[in-house]
Automatic annotation (TrEMBL):
InterPro entries: RNA_cap_Gua-N2-MeTrfase, SAM-dependent_MTases_sf. Signal peptide: none annotated. Belongs to the methyltransferase superfamily. Trimethylguanosine synthase family. CDD domains: AdoMet_MTases. It holds the Pfam family Methyltransf_15. This is Trimethylguanosine synthase. It comes from the Eukaryota. It catalyses: a 5'-end (N(7)-methyl 5'-triphosphoguanosine)-ribonucleoside in snoRNA + S-adenosyl-L-methionine = a 5'-end (N(2),N(7)-dimethyl 5'-triphosphoguanosine)-ribonucleoside in snoRNA + S-adenosyl-L-homocysteine + H(+); a 5'-end (N(2),N(7)-dimethyl 5'-triphosphoguanosine)-ribonucleoside in snoRNA + S-adenosyl-L-methionine = a 5'-end (N(2),N(2),N(7)-trimethyl 5'-triphosphoguanosine)-ribonucleoside in snoRNA + S-adenosyl-L-homocysteine + H(+); a 5'-end (N(2),N(7)-dimethyl 5'-triphosphoguanosine)-ribonucleoside in snRNA + S-adenosyl-L-methionine = a 5'-end (N(2),N(2),N(7)-trimethyl 5'-triphosphoguanosine)-ribonucleoside in snRNA + S-adenosyl-L-homocysteine + H(+); a 5'-end (N(7)-methyl 5'-triphosphoguanosine)-ribonucleoside in snRNA + S-adenosyl-L-methionine = a 5'-end (N(2),N(7)-dimethyl 5'-triphosphoguanosine)-ribonucleoside in snRNA + S-adenosyl-L-homocysteine + H(+). Keywords: Methyltransferase, Transferase. One of its GO terms (molecular function) is RNA cap trimethylguanosine synthase activity. One of its GO terms (cellular component) is nucleus. The lineage of its organism: Eukaryota, Fungi, Dikarya, Ascomycota, Taphrinomycotina.
Length: 243
């Protein structure tokens, strides 16, 4: 038993781990499992929802590396931790505070971090609603902090829309999340659908503060974008990236 399993009632967590036979709706994600986690076979835990929302490992690494190289953060806040795909990669570079509403996902994230040999002292998990938690960690503004958010897009149906509005994020619109994050730091990164409304995004840009958008391509197709706000040092060379 690893320490993660002490986090909650293991039997409750166990019931949420997806294992073969894989439900039909998740088969395409299962077939992609080694892109999600190269160490998948060492025992990665994902619940149903996380199969389609976890950030693929190379994408998560690339985001963490770009942020670290350009801004040398002392602290990263991962505002929607899920099962830990992004947190694992950030924690390779600096200490992380990971926020997540669902305690089952936190238990899974802790387990997954251990597989990637991230010391548990490197990541502080805080269970709760993202806005409540952001309000409660004002101390983070004393550090060179970056807030990364990969908020719920509303499930896979986002891709059917011609344009994805920032108001379609759930449970909070992008504007609410951005303003709350901005109270702590102007350095904000958001992982958003490939079809995000660029005009809406542009409203967060000023002459002084440009937005750098990285478009992650997979097998030649755009999969998702990462938007870096007030972080003009993020290299423009990451702007179009094959992963
Ligand atoms: P998607 O719609 O992209 O599939 P999810 O619904 O999986 O995204 O949500 C991403 C993560 O955000 C999940 O782990 C979910 O538990 C978490 N989450 C959702 N709402 C909140 C919230 N209000 N505060 C903190 N975490 C949240």
């Amino acid at each position: 038993m690893s320490e993660i399993e002490n986090f909650g009632d293991y039997e409750t967590i166990e019931k949420h781990i997806i294992r073969p036979p894989i439900p039909n709706a998740l088969k395409k994600y299962w077939n992609n499992r080694y892109n999600l986690f190269s160490r998948f076979d060492e025992g990665i835990w994902l619940d149903y929802q996380s199969w389609y929302s976890v950030t693929p490992e190379r994408v998560a690494y690339s985001i963490a590396q770009s942020i670290f190289e350009s801004h040398k953060p002392e602290l990263v806040i991962d505002a929607f931790s899920g099962c830990g795909g992004n947190t694992i990669q950030f924690a390779k570079f600096c200490p992380v505070i990971s926020i997540e509403l669902d305690p089952i996902k936190i238990a899974m994230a802790k387990h997954n971090l251990a597989i990637y040999e991230i010391p548990s002292s490197r990541v502080t998990f805080i269970q709760g609603d993202v806005l409540d938690v952001l309000r409660s960690i004002d101390f983070a503004s004393q550090y060179r902090t970056i807030i990364f958010m990969s908020p719920p897009w509303g499930g896979p149906s986002y891709s059917g829309k011609s344009t994805y509005s920032l108001n379609d994020l759930i449970p909070y619109t992008f504007d609410i999340l951005y303003k709350e994050a901005f109270r702590i730091t102007p350095y904000i990164a958001a992982f958003l659908p490939k079809n995000t409304d660029i005009d809406e995004l542009a409203q967060y840009s000023t002459d002084k503060n440009r937005i750098v958008v990285t478009n992650f391509l997979y097998e030649g197709y755009s999969k998702a974008i990462c938007c870096y706000f007030n972080m003009k040092n993020v290299l423009a060379s990451t702007a179009l990236q094959q992963v």
